[in-house]
Specification:
The complex is a heterodimer. By secondary structure, chain A is of the alpha+beta class. Chain A is built from two helices and six strands, in the order αββαββββ. In chain B, the strands form three sheets. Chain B has an eight-stranded parallel sheet. Chain B has a five-stranded mixed sheet with strand order 2-3-1-4-10. Classes of the chains: A alpha+beta, B alpha/beta.
Chain lengths: 133, 482
């Protein structure tokens, strides 16, 4: 399964130049870039591991590219995403978030159905095979 | 009117001009707490525009057609709305813009029903006017803060969906009427698996003989959950809970919640009070509320008479919906580019400056009220992606119903075509490319590796809806949709 989270998951994997262009765009908006990784990209897994704090003071795309490279070297088998955070009043939220690394074998989810009354079902999406991170 | 003699003269039984009854005050300076309204008035022949404006102020506040002594039991000057400015409409002889101020205490806190019962209550049928249109309103912060506002809002909706940096993608199931629950859910599943974020019931899908509501809810949520597990991405379907009574609507919304839906849908025709009730229900249960503006064109489309959609947008932001259909500019339904951008700004910005070119007459401070996600739906397709993003920005739901389900290679392919076109265009825009001019090349380049997009571009490349708009700004020559 191809995980389609993130702003650009329907495009071919972004090249280094394309990633850098998006980082430059985020910096030009005044946003802070951060990097997160996980082995559990469950759609409800809100908190991926932070690869350090958001890079509030790093305003240079080259420096951020180095961080991305270092994160990939450390966690080559993980999903890694680059986020851009906008701290202006009224947003104070993520404005861009896209994947920059996928494991060689993508994860799979299964849908479990618990049959209850009135033809209703309770659904649970479970990682296959289950992992904890 | 301080002296006793003048006062007794004012309250002599009989009929007197509204302007003389205190509904016209040329030197009135609106208070920060006043509700302001701008009406376009077209008086009957021979009716003085200032008297007409005063009459509108009177009939939308305290007045009746004759003098009543019981006014003297109240602080009546306070309760009288005051027309304070009348300007001729540029290029429209016989029509005038009338500015009217209303004291805050004329209105019940947090009630759109009460606000509108005054402002658009009796006055639109008033005989001395040929036509009357409510163009814009300024809601003072003191009144804004009595409303809940959007149950979820753009920021939190994006966080819940985990989708950032691009418009959301939706589609309305077609045919809108006649599918069984099982067949209907098939469309939902295919479209979500193919790459859409949302699928949507249409405004007139409620609980009909061909598909009762429970049937639809059960099959749609199977489709949503299955697509979610197969893509690893949060998905949704707007389950329309519109029904005959509030009790029915709550019952349907409860099932949507129990089944794990993240969103419910209502139609504008359920009325302002029902909309506010559902917005409160949604805030309580962490649900998103999608509003379809069914019926609005009966009163928003004609320039001379009715209520502008920018006013409806303001009321709906106060009432607390999270999504509202607000126009596409390039699609099949009415929408001048400037006017539509005005609605989008009202829904999405924290503060709106005066912007006459976009029909915005008043500065509006939204005081931290959450933002509403506008929805662009009706006759749009992947080939217009650059125009849609250019005009509408990225905080919008783009809904390609026919443009997904009518794809020659199937529904999944239609959804994929739209998603690829969208992501390619956002990538290019962020890279600094001029998407307005280079859009077609950007789409062609993506279509070289994405066959569904190629098929979509070929199928719909010549489809445009380029007609003159009926509702346009009065202050500049307006462009029509490209």
């Amino acid at each position: 399964m191809r995980l389609t989270q993130g702003t650009f998951s329907f495009l071919p994997e972004l090249t280094e130049a394309q990633i850098r262009a998006q980082v430059e765009y985020a910096l030009a908006q005044g946003w802070a870039v951060s990097i997160e990784y996980t082995d559990d990209p469950h759609p409800r897994n809100t908190y991926w591991e932070m690869y350090g704090n958001p890079l509030f003071d790093l305003r240079d795309a080259a420096g951020i590219m180095q961080e991305i490279t270092a994160c990939r070297a450390t966690f080559p088998g993980s999903y890694i995403k680059v986020n851009a955070f906008d701290s202006t009043r009224g947003w104070e939220a993520m404005r861009l978030s896209f994947l920059v690394n996928r494991p060689p074998q993508e994860c799979e989810f299964v849908l479990e159905r618990q049959e209850i009354d009135g033809r209703r079902l309770r659904y649970t999406t479970r990682r296959e095979p289950a992992r904890t991170r | 009117m301080g002296k006793m003699g003048e006062v007794s003269e004012r309250y002599k039984s009989g009929v007197m001009p509204y302007a003389k009854m205190g509904y016209w005050e040329a030197d009135y300076v609106p208070k920060d707490t006043d509700v302001l309204a701008l009406f376009r008035i077209t008086p009957q022949d021979g009716v003085d525009p200032i008297e007409a404006a005063a009459a509108v102020a009177g009939e939308s506040s305290t007045a009746t057609w004759t003098v009543v002594w019981t006014d003297r039991l109240t602080a009546c000057e306070n309760y009288r709305a005051k027309a304070y400015r009348v300007d001729p409409v540029p290029g429209q002889p016989g029509s005038y813009f009338a500015y009217i101020a209303y004291d805050l205490d004329l209105f019940e806190e947090g009630s759109i029903a009460n606000l509108t019962a005054s402002i658009i209550g009796n006055v639109f049928g008033f005989k001395p006017l040929k036509a009357l249109r409510l163009e814009d309103m300024r809601i003072p912060v003191a009144y804004v803060k009595t409303f809940q506002g959007p149950a979820t809002g753009i920021v939190v909706e994006r966080e819940r969906l985990d989708k950032f940096g691009r418009p959301l993608l939706g589609a309305t199931v077609k045919p809108k009427l006649g599918l069984s629950g099982k067949n209907y859910g098939r469309v939902v599943y295919e479209a979500l698996k193919g790459g859409l974020d949302f699928v949507k019931d249409d405004e007139n899908i409620n609980s009909q003989p061909f598909m009762h509501w429970r049937e639809r809810f059960l099959y749609c949520m199977e489709a949503v959950n299955k697509a979610q597990a197969e893509t690893g991405e949060v998905k949704g379907h707007y389950l329309n809970v519109t029904a005959a009574t509030m009790e029915d609507m709550y019952e349907r919304a409860e099932l949507a919640k129990e089944l794990g839906s993240c969103i419910v849908m209502i139609d504008l025709v359920i009325g302002y009070t029902a909309i506010q009730s559902m917005a409160k229900w949604a805030r309580k249960h962490d649900m998103i509320v999608h509003l379809h503006r069914a019926g609005h064109s009966t009163y928003t489309r004609q320039k001379q008479h009715g209520v502008s959609f920018r006013v409806i947008s303001k009321w709906m932001r106060l009432a607390g919906v999270d999504h509202i259909h607000a126009g596409t500019i390039v699609g099949k339904l009415e929408g001048d580019p400037n006017m539509v951008q005005g609605y989008y700004n009202i829904l999405r910005e924290q503060r709106n400056p005066v912007d006459l070119q976009r029909g915005v007459f008043f500065e509006q401070d939204w005081a931290g009220l959450r933002k509403v996600m506008p929805v662009a739906s009706g006759g749009i397709h992947a080939g217009q992606m650059h125009q849609l993003i250019h005009y509408l920005g990225e905080d919008v739901v783009l809904q390609f119903g026919g443009g997904t389900i009518g794809h020659p290679m199937g529904i999944q392919a239609g959804a994929t075509a739209n998603r690829v076109a969208l992501e390619a265009m956002i990538l290019a825009r962020n890279e600094g490319r001029d998407i307005w001019n280079e859009g077609p090349q950007i789409l062609e380049a993506a279509a070289r590796w994405c066959k569904p997009l190629q098929a979509a571009l070929t199928t719909w490349k010549d489809v445009t809806f380029d007609y003159a708009s009926t509702d346009t700004a009065d202050f500049v020559a307006t462009a029509t949709a490209a």
